[in-house]
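Lecture notes, structural biology module. Today: joint structure prediction for complexes of two components.
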Amino acid sequence: DTAVSQTPKYLVTQMGNDKSIKCEQNLGHDTMYWYKQDSKKFLKIMFSYNNKELIINETVPNRFSPKSPDKAHLNLHINSLELGDSAVYFCASSPRTGVPGELFFGEGSRLTVL
Amino acid sequence: KQEVTQIPAALSVPEGENLVLNCSFTDSAIYNLQWFRQDPGKGLTSLLLIQSSQREQTSGRLNASLDKSSGRSTLYIAASQPGDSATYLCAVRSTDSWGKLQFGAGTQVVVTP
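The predicted structure, tokenised, for the full assembly:
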């Protein structure tokens, strides 16, 4: 009964390919996020959506495109993959009622670009 | 720009000792601060969330304090166990960036039996 689930958990692909990572949350939260954890384990936000609307868009190459078909889903599509895109990508969600609430994270999707 | 620092970067203690993990942040204008645990190859598990108006939060053996004016938070883990071995991350949410959680680099903890 996973709260925030991501698929796939592991992804190995060649440079230049296009890939997607899917995220779903069953917590009823309005806000969802994508974070990237690099090889040094540092976590940095990429995007945030609130009720299907983009509210945070950090300095991320436009090869990365988030898509939110509804407030329970936030997918990440990456075009023309590069070696430097290898990382663990985490999806998260939080409620949006008054003060920002607690963030809940998925298990992560490890992307390896060869 | 908010910066979050965690010291030490790594910590090893014998089982039964109390753990003290430190987190400092540069901008005191925050909504809240959240402590997470990350096991190798796993996602982040939320441990405690402290709102800016609170001084501390407790959950079982865990206690987190917040001194917003000095930009510091401390996570105490009482009577450590080998199962507490993990990386502990703190993250702050500044008032000028509603949804954005700024993370520290983490403290890697090893509790030896």
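Point to remember: Chain B touches chain A through 24 residues (CB under 8 Å).
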